[in-house]
Amino acid sequence: MGQWVKLICGASYQDMPTVRRLVMLYALAGVDCIDVAADGAVVAAARQGLRDAQWLSDYLGNRSYLIPDFPWLMVSLNDSEDPHFRKADFDAARCPAECDRPCEPICPTAAIQFQSPQVGGVTTDLCYGCGRCIAVCPVGNIEARPYLANPEAFSTGHLAQIDAVEIHTQTGHQAQFDQLWQRLQPWRAHLKLVSISCPDHDQVVPYLWDLYNTMAPLGVPLIWQTDGRPMSGDLGKGTTHATIRLAKKILEAGPPGYVQPAGGTNGYTVDKLIALGLVNQASPAALLDDVQPDQLPAPQPAGVTYHDSALARARTNISGIAYGSYGRSQVLPLLDAIDQELQPWLGKNFPDQLAQGQHTSLPYLKSTASAARPPWQRLEDTALGQGLTLARQIVAQLKPEGQTSNGQTLDDPNP
């Protein structure tokens, strides 16, 4: 079964405390991969979240679904201007004094705050570029400032902390993709997986073939992320149709690789995929470690299509799913309370002790923390328990209890 589940923290989201707690919760819920901004400090916060999850899993027992080798940590890059890589910006002094400021309540991360009618602005680290504020501003005062992620900003030490990379591209950006791919040469020895995220277009299939030929032979597994509705954040049933249509298109005619819907995925997506027969509910998952680079086909000559190749066996199933706004929004209201509950045990310094191999016993921690019972001993009435339940419900849509992956798994891309 294609049970690969990824959490997307946000390619432009740089709120490190929130990233840390999101990573911790979803790691404990059993996700296989977590996608974060290509920022060294954010990567460090994510790693800290994984260490938190590792420690908590010892005390959660069967309430922890942390996979044995930890979720893989992925960072996102863009080859050109892209809606995932932008920040809202405005001059509050230009806002009308009588404005109701609809931008403030509509921001899903509270990135926009006003101290008075014409004093305020955007907290950059909290903004992930959803664009909701731009759409509701009655005077058009808010603009999006795009940027390019910089792979050269990652030191060798940073590269050792990541497992995978995702490149956001769009049809027609072959030259920009080629340039970025060449700049990633120093990264390739560190990568266990490459993901390509692309929205739909009438020429998307030949474009993905061009990208495949550029990268092949790749040497690691490849994911095609079908970005149906980029940055939609919509939880309605209809939102998921675009990513499913694109996934079907790539399954039928796209290049070899794993297909993973994203961009509009929500609580209805898995049920719809199952109803359409796009989820393999019979055969076991294929371990990524068992995928050999020489099993992937060589670049295709010009004019040769997938149906002409030796691997012209139709794929019928998606290999996993990625959740962005939907996955974050379900637990975001609980994160501050979870942080307060865990602060005595997982404070600022404790994860650093874990990183240095210092193991502290629970009795000692209890003696230095508050006298209250720790939250993992009373999950039924804590924010931690609620957050774990919500995160697990999302992951379990594709990874039911009893079928949790024993490591990172994707359904065979070329059955």
From TrEMBL:
Source species, domain of life: Bacteria
Alphabetized GO MF terms: 4 iron, 4 sulfur cluster binding; metal ion binding
Pfam families attached to this UniProt entry: LdpA_C (PF12617), LdpA_Fe-S-bd (PF25160)
UniProt-listed InterPro entries: 4Fe4S_Fe-S-bd, 4Fe4S_Fe_S_CS, Fe-S-bd_prot_LdpA_C, LdpA_Fe-S-bd, PSI_iron-sulfur_center
Keywords, in A-Z order: 4Fe-4S, Iron, Iron-sulfur, Metal-binding
Gene3D superfamilies in the cross-refs: 3.30.70.20
Cofactor(s) named in the record: [4Fe-4S] cluster
The 4Fe-4S ferredoxin-type domain, residue ranges: 86-116, 117-147
PANTHER family linked: PHOTOSYSTEM I IRON-SULFUR CENTER, PHOTOSYSTEM I IRON-SULFUR CENTER-RELATED
Name of the protein in question: 4Fe-4S ferredoxin
Organism whose genome encodes this protein: Shackletoniella antarctica
Lineage: Bacteria, Bacillati, Cyanobacteriota, Cyanophyceae, Oculatellales
